């Protein structure tokens, strides 16, 4: 028997998985989520439901046949061309053969008599589905002319699409006249005048268009229901002339409301009197004013055009856009031109939480010292290199030789300064960059000559590349016997860093931090690259810089290390940094000296802020009042932003974000247990790109998901996909703080399916994983029945009902259930952090000392809609 996945069915019928699941649920068929499989029967139910909704899909010949059948006495629910309520459907359902075609099945059915059942439930069901099944509704509309009015009472509602309502019900007088000529039937308002029409002989416009073949009195049921498109026209109000004929419900949700209702019943209303509530054609301006990017919806409103027209026009101009997507000013101008509309540019709106940037005259720029960050794999010698440089180039020049640690320092080389950020690692590229700060001009990549390119080396390269910062390679530990710089160069070339002596453009300098060799070469190269990069700034303006570090000092209050990047910071300047503000009370340089001013590329400790700013915050010298008021507004904005949900990309709301135009690139960090899986995943993921979104892999690597992966994901708004690997404890904490979506998979195609489903809005996650605790296996005992892992709960807890995964060196080696959880000899329900326990696993014996057991449970996720 064939099996079908829910998301496949959704794709086939051009709808969402949720709709498919809902339809099946109404037929007592259970499907948990988009990945659930269903059998042939379920497929038939879906086929049938959609066949009803998309009657137009039938070949022309069949349509004709259906049309002729419709004049007969027993029209089918199927051929009515629209969704029916399940209740009505069940009540009128006749057995059918599984292989039978939907329309044949429909024809086997008795006519639908139970309007009550239809009215009460069917309308609601349809309304719910109508939102998600625009296409089905459109098809149903198209199928209209083939389904005469006698067949079903729901035609008026279902086939009178809301979109047509203005034309039939609210049209301008001119349109109304047209309508009359078309169908030969009066407007609904006229229907209320028995003298003129006899009340029940007309259909509202949209129905008339379709039903004009039917004889008088044919609309005993369908045409008179004042629902959907007819509702507003009021013409079919049960209290009016139709009531005796239609068998309609006299009250309830289908009653026309408001102004029109009264109008409709007033005798003497006719088409010549415009309906005051009628939807006026929006004015079509010749000039519109725009201050910047604008959403398609706003633009359509300003231009007095339908959103759909605008989207179509954009398509012809080669831009695919959704209703809430922003188009830039240039595109808007071109688009408006297509409608002969002139765009007047308004000055861009000012953000009260932003400090206006000062544009520097190029002539005012002078060379400034370059700012350098050291990166590389663990133990390759970053700290040693920084220390060696500092000792040889700082202390030697300092009286007393004391260097204050302030997170950054300056060194001298050939009389020129170079600033080193004193945070070996990725700080400058990760948490700081995640806040939008770009402080580094050059990255020094340290690679141990005896170890070569390692995973963190690749990571560092990706960080620097993604920040578009030039890389200089320091091949360290050249004093080691196993040093092999050529091998390092070869490996780096494979990563896209081709050494200069091989014809590439990456400078590589052999050094030894221990023997302090090659250091001056390295510094010279830094100056060379800085010169090529034209690292410049204007010192004669208000200061602008970035917070490198900040802390609350007991004696001195908030202390922030600032790297001044533009202008000159002076004692007494009013400053703002993130949500903090104040006046510069004192400044201390990297040598521990008090200074009165700090020019571009000078790191200084600043005292005087009212609170501790965050690393990565921009510091600006501004007017005192502005500093205070902007900082206060930022605090308020931050609070409200914190209340809103994180806008970080996540598979769960990816589709929504794509629809809103918030995401055009889906950035992914891929981590896996082996290189082969990475390649397979990368290839498959990248090929998922579609018109709206492009998939790009910002980083990939073998091994556990670590904090640096999370910070890179945060900086590049990426989600992380782990294949057979898990985040370590630090990564998990960072992911929580940074709101990074980490997805772990053990089957590649599930990862691909999830991403694809999320991109197309078909992801319907029902459960989410909640980590309960982490347990370390300390001793393994063999017992006759199997093995028991003598373990210690490191954090959280483990319960006897927990699901568990065994992690060895960051790699998931097993996932499954517990067989028993014991303390001493007793079975227990739960063991908390800090306690020992004995764990045995179901169907798994290969547990080893040092393994980490992750206990988790699956929690039901509330459906958002
Ligand atoms: N022989 C030799 N050993 C070095 C050299 N540079 C660093 N080391 C040694 O390599 C080890 C790691 O050096 P670190 O400077 O701590 O390396 P790191 O990259 O800063 O390490 P993390 O901070 O842990 O990432 C230490 O034992 C150093 O003594 C070198 O040039 N030659």
List the keywords:
865 residues; alpha+beta; Rossmann fold; six-stranded antiparallel β-barrel; globular; binds guanosine-5'-triphosphate; IF2_N; GTP-binding; nucleotide-binding; initiation factor; protein biosynthesis
Commentary on this structure:
33% of the residues lie in helices and 24% in strands. It is of the alpha+beta class and 865 residues long. The longest helix has 20 residues, at 624-643. Strand 31 and strand 32 (826-827) form a beta hairpin. It has a 6-stranded mixed sheet with strand order 9-10-8-11-12-13, sandwiched between helices. It has a 6-stranded antiparallel β-barrel with strand order 15-16-22-19-18-23. The chain has a 6-stranded antiparallel β-barrel with strand order 28-29-34-31-30-35. Helix 1 packs across helix 2 (17-26), helix 17 packs across helix 18 (307-316) and helix 28 (707-715) runs parallel beside helix 29 (729-738). It starts with a strand and ends in a 5-residue tail after the last strand. Among the domains are: 4-52, no CATH class; 287-345, no CATH class; 364-537, 3-Layer(aba) Sandwich (Rossmann fold), CATH 3.40.50; 544-644, Translation factors (Elongation Factor Tu (Ef-tu), domain 3), CATH 2.40.30; 663-762, 3-Layer(aba) Sandwich (Rossmann fold), CATH 3.40.50.10050; 766-861, Translation factors (Elongation Factor Tu (Ef-tu), domain 3), CATH 2.40.30. The protein has 30 helices and 35 strands. It binds guanosine-5'-triphosphate. Guanosine-5'-triphosphate is lined by residues 376, 378-384, 424, 476-477, 479-480, 512-514. Residues 54-289 are annotated as: Disordered. This is Translation initiation factor IF-2. Belongs to the TRAFAC class translation factor GTPase superfamily. Classic translation factor GTPase family. IF-2 subfamily. Residues 367-536 form the Tr-type G domain. GTP binds at residues 376-383, 422-426, 476-479.
């Amino acid at each position: 028997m064939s099996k079908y996945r829910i998301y496949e069915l959704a794709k086939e019928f051009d709808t969402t998985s949720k709709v498919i699941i809902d339809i099946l649920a109404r037929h007592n068929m259970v499907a948990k989520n988009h990945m659930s499989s269903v059998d042939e029967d379920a497929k038939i139910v879906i086929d049938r439901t959609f066949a009803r909704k998309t009657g137009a899909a039938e070949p022309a010949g069949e349509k004709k046949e259906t049309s002729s059948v419709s004049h007969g006495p027993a029209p089918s629910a199927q051929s009515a061309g629209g969704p029916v309520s399940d209740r009505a459907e069940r009540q009128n359902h006749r057995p059918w053969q599984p292989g039978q075609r939907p329309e044949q099945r429909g024809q086997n059915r008795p006519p639908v008599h139970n309007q009550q059942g239809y009215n009460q439930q069917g309308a609601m069901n349809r309304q719910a589905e109508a939102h998600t099944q625009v296409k089905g509704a459109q098809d149903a509309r198209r199928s209209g002319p083939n389904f005469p009015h006698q067949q079903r009472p729901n035609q008026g509602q279902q086939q009178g699409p809301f979109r047509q309502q203005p034309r039939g019900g609210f049209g301008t007088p001119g349109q109304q006249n047209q309508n009359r000529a078309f169908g030969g039937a009066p407007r609904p308002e006229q229907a209320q005048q028995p003298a003129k029409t006899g009340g029940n002989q007309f259909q509202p416009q949209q129905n008339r268009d379709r039903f004009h073949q039917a004889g008088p009195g044919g609309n005993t049921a369908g045409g008179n229901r004042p629902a959907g498109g007819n509702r507003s026209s009021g013409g079919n109000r049960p209290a009016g002339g139709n009531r005796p004929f239609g068998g309609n419900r006299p009250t309830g949700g289908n009653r026309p409301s408001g102004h029109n209702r009264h109008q409709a019943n007033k005798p003497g209303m006719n088409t010549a009197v415009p309906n005051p509530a009628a939807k006026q054609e929006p004015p079509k301006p010749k000039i519109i004013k725009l201050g910047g990017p604008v959403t398609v919806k706003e633009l359509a409103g300003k231009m007095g055009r339908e959103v759909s027209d605008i989207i179509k026009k954009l398509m012809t101009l080669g831009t695919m856009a959704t209703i809430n997507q922003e188009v830039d000013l240039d595109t808007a101008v071109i688009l408006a031109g297509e409608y002969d509309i002139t765009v007047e540019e308004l000055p861009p709106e000012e953000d009260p939480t932003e400090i206006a940037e000062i544009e520097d005259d190029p002539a005012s720029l002078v060379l400034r010292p370059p700012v350098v960050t050291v990166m590389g794999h663990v133990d390759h010698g970053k700290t040693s290199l920084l220390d060696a440089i500092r000792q040889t180039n700082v202390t030697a020049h300092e009286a007393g030789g004391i260097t204050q640690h302030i997170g950054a320092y300056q060194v001298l080389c050939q009389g020129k300064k170079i600033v080193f950020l004193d945070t070996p690692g990725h700080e400058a590229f990760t948490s700081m960059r995640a806040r939008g700060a770009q402080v580094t001009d050059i990255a020094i990549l340290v690679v141990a000559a005896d170890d070569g390119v390692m995973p963190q080396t690749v990571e560092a390269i990706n960080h620097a590349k993604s920040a578009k910062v030039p890389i200089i390679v320091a091949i360290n530990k050249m004093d080691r016997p196993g040093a092999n710089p050529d091998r390092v160069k070869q490996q780096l070339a494979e990563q896209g860093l081709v050494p200069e002596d091989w014809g590439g453009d990456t400078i590589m300098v052999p050094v030894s931090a221990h023997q302090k060799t090659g250091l001056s070469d390295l510094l010279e190269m830094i100056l060379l690259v800085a010169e090529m990069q034209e690292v410049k700034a204007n010192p004669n303006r208000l200061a602008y810089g970035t917070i490198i570090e900040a802390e609350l000092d007991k004696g001195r209050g908030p202390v922030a290390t600032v790297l001044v990047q533009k202008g000159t910071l002076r004692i007494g300047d009013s400053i703002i940094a993130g949500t903090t503000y104040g006046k510069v009370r004192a400044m201390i340089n990297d040598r521990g000296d008090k200074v009165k001013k700090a020019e571009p590329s000078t790191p200084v400790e600043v005292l005087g802020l009212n609170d501790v700013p965050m690393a990565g915050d921009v510091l600006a010298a501004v007017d005192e009042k502005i500093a205070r008021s902007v900082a206060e507004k930022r605090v308020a904005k931050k609070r409200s932003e914190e209340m809103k949900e994180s806008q970080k990309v996540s598979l769960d709301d990816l589709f929504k974000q794509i629809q809103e135009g918030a995401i055009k690139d889906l950035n992914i960090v891929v981590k896996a247990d082996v290189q082969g899986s990475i390649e397979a995943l990368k290839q498959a993921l990248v090929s998922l790109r579609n018109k709206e979104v492009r998939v790009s892999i910002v980083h990939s690597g073998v091994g556990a998901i670590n904090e640096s992966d999370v910070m890179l994901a945060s900086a590049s708004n990426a989600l992380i996909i782990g294949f057979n690997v898990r985040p370590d404890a630090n990564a998990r904490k960072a992911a929580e703080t940074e709101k990074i979506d980490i997805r772990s998979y053990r089957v590649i195609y599930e990862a691909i399916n999830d991403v694809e489903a999320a991109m197309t809005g078909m992801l319907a996650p029902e459960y989410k994983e909640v980590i309960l605790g982490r347990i370390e296996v300390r001793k393994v005992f063999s017992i006759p029945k199997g093995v028991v892992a003598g373990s210690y709960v490191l954090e959280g807890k483990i319960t006897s009902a927990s699901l568990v995964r065994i992690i060895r060196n960051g790699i998931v080696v097993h996932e499954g259930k517990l067989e028993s959880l014991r303390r001493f000899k007793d079975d227990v329900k739960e063991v908390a952090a800090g306690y020992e326990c004995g764990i045995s696993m179901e169907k798994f014996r290969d547990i080893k000392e040092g393994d980490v057991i992750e206990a988790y449970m699956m929690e039901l996720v509330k459906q958002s809609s």
